[in-house]
Amino acid sequence: MLKLNNIERMRIVEKIMPFCLALFFCRTVFIGYKYLFFATLVPCVVFSAYSFFKNGIAKPKWRGILLPLMVMALFSAHFAPLSNVVKESVNLLLILYFVAFADLYYAGEKTETFLKWILRLTMLAGLTAIVRFGLMVLGVRIPLGEKLFEGVGFTLVNDCNFYSLFFILSIIISVWLFVDKKISGAKLFIINIISVINIVAVMSRRGYALYALVIFGIVLLSIFKYNCNKKLLTLSLAPIVLSVFGVLAVLLSFNKIYTDELSIDDKYKYYKVYTLLDDGATFYEFDFRQKMARYQKFDYAIGDNLFRNGDLKHGLDDWNYLPTPHDCIRFDLVEADDGSKAIRVDRGCSRGYWQVLYSGRPIFYHRNVTYNLSFTYRVLEGIDRPFFVGWWVNEGQGWRHNLSPTITQIDSVWNHCSVSYTFVNDRLNPNCFINSLRAGSSIEVKDISLTCNDTTGLPMYADQLPDSVIHSFFVGAGGDTVNYMTKPRTDRWRYAQELWQTRYDTKQKIFGQGFSYLEWYGEKFWRNPKRYDFPHNPIISSFLYSGIIGGILYIIFLIMSLWLYWKKRRQMGIFFIMYLCCMFFSMFSGSSHFSFPLFAFLSFVPFVEYKSEVSAEKC
């Protein structure tokens, strides 16, 4: 480890580092923390580098963490696609930087300081999510919301599973601090309340399962280790009871939708509230998995606009965009020069998908029916028409996302655009409208309309169709029932086996093939090789990018981490429990060992402790 005792100025960095480290990890729960993290990290790095240069530093001895370094070297041995390597390399370097100071965090008071910062930052994120959700329900737009919040549902980030994990860890940390008499019972209760609300609201199945295990562990701890500590039991279990009553109240409220008491608009509001709660929700999940609501069928007249809020009188309701990590985009409601409402879209980067996406009531497109999409637009920056229009479907003749438009000039500024497409097969709510806006372009669109030539009164919305019709889109050809609990993961794991058998020769099976599999997964599961996907299991990923050698080394590394933790479970018990929780989530959601920084950092802690112990024995 680095020798810091002779550098008195490093005490300043030592005081700031627990907060900076907590910010680094809590970016996973609130994207807004990344800005504060870099604002804290950069001065620390500059100051520590200056101190090292001026005072000198003992040469680090890395033999104690040789295996982790070998895993990192194999991970970084391939360089495609570059964006993924850059992202993971940044995480890796930051983790190494913090590992160099690891002895500051899991000993004595510094452990308590670090964990308290994790707790505070997670609770602040949880309160922010609750307030944000309330404002969303009221229709209040939050300044800088698109910069600070990546998640479109209750969560503040895109991954609801890792989001819920931090609140589970907060419960564990708060109980540990309470038992050690570091926080009061009132604080423990408040932390549990905020955590339970967020865990329940984000609807993470893994979060529910792990939360149940954690509560079971707390009950056993209270009974057997602390002689039926009633206070600990009450403060931990009371929030669960309150949350159960809350869920029942919501269910009873949703149950009203089965009656005729509410209008169609009111029923739609209930659906919108549900999709706000679940950032990955689609209508079939709401209608068939949850069984909470039904729309009443209403007549459709030819010529009616199938898009809700096509005139934008209700703001941006039912309109959104599909962001990517590299897509610098502005998406906002503006007032056009004639006083009408328009959607303003600016794009600054070189990649991106659907810049204006219909996200309202799910539409069912019927085969042999011609659908007409029309709208008015003007180009503020860019060529005459710097975008594509269409649907994300491929029915044997290529993707229909760039249909030939009919353009009519309205005046010197505004143009009218219309496209038509006759579907070959029935389609359930494919991505639709404007996509592939060129980098550096800026447009405004308004008066958006979708009509069809049907005269037979076909149902046009997913909720108007029988369960069997909708289920046919999510059931295999053999008629097997969809397993929503495991299918999204098992399909990706099976595809890894398919890739291994079909796209890897003997040399690539031994040494790996880099990150090419990310594009293959994107093509397989999103029909878009530029939208990267992965097996959602870091062990499988390690075999794909670094072959048998890297995969086996990674498994050995995990086994050694567990073994060293187990040997020091009394000294590092809280970190061991956190490590197990993070491992549970990473094995179902992680793209690699370094994609979830907290898990990567915790896996290094026992190696650092082991090295410190060996050094102490030699002295």
Q: What does this molecule look like?
A:
- The chain has 619 residues and is of the alpha+beta class.
- Mean pLDDT is 75; it is low at 1-7, 57-68, 74-82, 254-265, 267-298 and 474-485.
- It contains 19 helices and 12 strands.
- Helix 1 (10-26) packs parallel to helix 5.
- Strand 2 (329-335) and strand 3 form a beta hairpin.
- The protein has helices spanning 10-26, 33-55, 66-75, 82-99, 109-137, 145-148, 160-179, 185-202, 205-225, 230-255, 264-277, 283-289, 467-471, 487-502, 506-511, 516-526, 538-567, 573-589, 597-618, and strands spanning 319-320, 329-335, 341-347, 354-358, 364-365, 370-381, 388-391, 406-409, 415-422, 427-428, 432-435, 442-452.
- The strands form 3 sheets. The chain has a 6-stranded antiparallel sheet, with no helix packed on it.
Write the layout of secondary structure elements.
Blueprint: H1 10-26, H2 33-55, H3 66-75, H4 82-99, H5 109-137, H6 145-148, H7 160-179, H8 185-202, H9 205-225, H10 230-255, H11 264-277, H12 283-289, E1 319-320, E2 329-335, E3 341-347, E4 354-358, E5 364-365, E6 370-381, E7 388-391, E8 406-409, E9 415-422, E10 427-428, E11 432-435, E12 442-452, H13 467-471, H14 487-502, H15 506-511, H16 516-526, H17 538-567, H18 573-589, H19 597-618
Antiparallel strand pairs: 1-4, 2-3, 3-12, 4-11, 5-10, 6-9, 6-12, 7-11, 8-9
Helix pairs in contact: 1-2, 1-5, 3-17, 4-19, 5-7, 5-8, 7-8, 7-9, 7-18, 8-10, 9-10, 17-18, 17-19, 18-19
